[in-house]
Amino acid sequence: MATRQGGFFSCLPTALPARHSTGAPPVAVMIRLHDVSKTYYPKGRRSTASGVTALKHADLHVPQGRIHGVIGLSGAGKSTLIRCVNLLERPTTGTVTVDGQELTALSGSALNQARHRIGMIFQHFNLLTSRTVFANVALPLELMGMKRGEIRERITPLLELVGLTDKARQYPAQLSGGQKQRVAIARALASRPKVLLCDEATSALDPHTTGAILDLLRDINRKLGLTILLITHEMEVVKSICHRVSLISDGELVEEADVGDFFTAPRTQLGRDFLNDFLELEPPRALIERLEDAPGPHSHPVVRLAFSGDAVSTPLISRLARECSVDVSILQAKVESIQERTLGLMIAELMGPAEKTREALDYLESHDLQVEVLGHVQRDD
Ligand SMILES: Nc1ncnc2c1ncn2[C@@H]1O[C@H](COP(=O)(O)OP(=O)(O)OP(=O)(O)O)[C@@H](O)[C@H]1O
Ligand SMILES: [Mg+2]
């Protein structure tokens, strides 16, 4: 597959400045991972056996009040990374600092105390089946030694926040998946944490319920100023609520960007693969089968175009047809809104003599469109 410009999406204009460079006063870093690596060794054989290194030299900064996503394929090290933040997994090397306190320097009760500032939710909710909704949410407060009256005072508004006031006396088995995750969110918030860690929190839920839980997380982020670090393998989750995203591959953080930038111009091949899968913009199957790499005497290029910013609202295709004397057959098109950005995508066949279609490609590129030539299709007519 030929590419005119060193990779699809690689040089789209950035329509808006990055959020972190808007001139606003700097925000405190809430989560800081410095050169964190994690190797798993077989139990009791750390000195003799070789281990699995699931996280390699990870550096990550999440400013206070932001929602940061980490996306990667299965086995990439996402859970390892997030579990290193609250030291459910102790890093083999490197330091973890949350809210100004270096957790990797703590152990025992000091670490437990520091963990009260970090809530966590999981894919499978991890509720105690023998406890009611209320008692599940109360558990961390009981463990902290809080008095019954105080616990009730704290939990009542939390159940209201997650929309479960009427379910307080029910048991997990009586709840839907989305309701169970709401209980888990209320439980995670009970100790009034400053950070919420979400390990694939919506992966077990249907799309509608996923949307409702993401809305709740966004609401909590705004209302409570909570910093959220979430890991996911779904671009939809990143698109829906994250401000910034990191991409993890084979234990390494290989790319990091504001979400608007990532969706318009991912810098790595893995990023582009995630984006293409998410956008599902492929030529029709019948056409794919007829695509050839090299142009022939009577072939036309089939191109994938991506455009953002002003280009979305400019009638470029009709101008192209007029100014370059080519016909443009649009095979697929869609417009996506990603945060403040609008991203337009199109697959089109450029029809005309070879010199005219070459001119048309130059025209598109000179107007800040990202152009990828998918191949050439023979036309005998
Ligand atoms: N406790 C463990 N002992 C040994 N190896 C482990 C352990 N936990 C994870 N691993 C290995 O570390 C690597 C990363 O695993 P991890 O669970 O962090 O990936 P992940 O990105 O969360 O995957 P998934 O999307 O499937 O949940 C994998 O190769 C896994 O087999
Ligand atoms: Mg995982």
UniProtKB/TrEMBL annotation:
It is found in: Cell inner membrane. InterPro entries: AAA+_ATPase, ABC_transporter-like_ATP-bd, ABC_transporter-like_CS, ACT-like_dom_sf, MetN_ABC, MetN_ABC_transporter-like, NIL_domain, P-loop_NTPase. Residues 31-275 form the ABC transporter domain. Keywords: Amino-acid transport, ATP-binding, Cell membrane, Hydrolase, Membrane, Nucleotide-binding, Translocase, Transport. GO terms for cellular component: plasma membrane. The keyword Hydrolase applies. Coiled coil: none annotated. SMART domains: AAA (SM00382), NIL (SM00930). SUPFAM superfamilies: ACT-like, P-loop containing nucleoside triphosphate hydrolases. GO terms for biological process: amino acid transport. It is a peripheral membrane protein. GO terms for molecular function: ATP binding; ATP hydrolysis activity. PANTHER family: AMINO ACID IMPORT ATP-BINDING PROTEIN (PTHR43166), METHIONINE IMPORT ATP-BINDING PROTEIN METN (PTHR43166:SF30). Belongs to the ABC transporter superfamily. Part of the ABC transporter FtsEX involved in cellular division. Important for assembly or stability of the septal ring. This is Cell division ATP-binding protein FtsE. It comes from Halomonas lysinitropha. The lineage of its organism: Bacteria, Pseudomonadati, Pseudomonadota, Gammaproteobacteria, Oceanospirillales. The gene is metN.
